[in-house]
Amino acid sequence: MAAPWLMTPLPPAKQFDWSNLAIRAASALVLVPATVAAVWFGAWPFLLLISVGVALLAIEWAGMTAPKAPIRVLSTVLVGVLAGVFLIYLRYVPQIGRAHV
After folding, report:
1. How far apart (Å, rounded) are the C-alpha atoms in residues 27 and 14?
2. HEC states along the chain?
3. What's the rounded Cα separation, in Å, for the pair 57 and 52?
4. Which residues contact 86 (CB under 8 A, 6 or more apart)?
């Protein structure tokens, strides 16, 4: 166990920023029906929703992890994850892929 004098206290937590609450509520009003519709209609709309989500998360990840070369990280993550998503989709969606191979 570390000596007590070597431990540092945690920084104080930031307070919630209420100024962007309207933007968050508006995005929820758009995203919830879009997600429900994609799940309801299934197959290609759901795959499109997942692909857009992966692309947006890859952009965010690249900006945080490699601010000097975000395009390289973005393309690598995006291609790798989308390839996995599409391969799993083609394997487990019976009307499109080969589910019983």
Report:
1. 23
2. CCCHHHCCCCCCCCCCCHHHHHHHHHHHHHHHHHHHHHHHHCHHHHHHHHHHHHHHHHHHHHHHHCCCCHHHHHHHHHHHHHHHHHHHHHHHCCCCCCCCC
3. 9
4. 47
CA distances from 28 to 32, 41, 72, 94, 99 (A): 6, 20, 31, 32, 34
> pTM score > 0.85 for this model?
no
The rounded distance, in Å, linking the Cα atoms of 98 and 101 is 6
Measured on CA atoms in the order 84, 87, 90, 93, is the torsion positive or negative? negative
* CA-based nearest residue to 85, from 55, 41, 40: 55
What does the pLDDT look like over 2-25, one tens digit per residue?
556 667 777 777 787 788 889 989
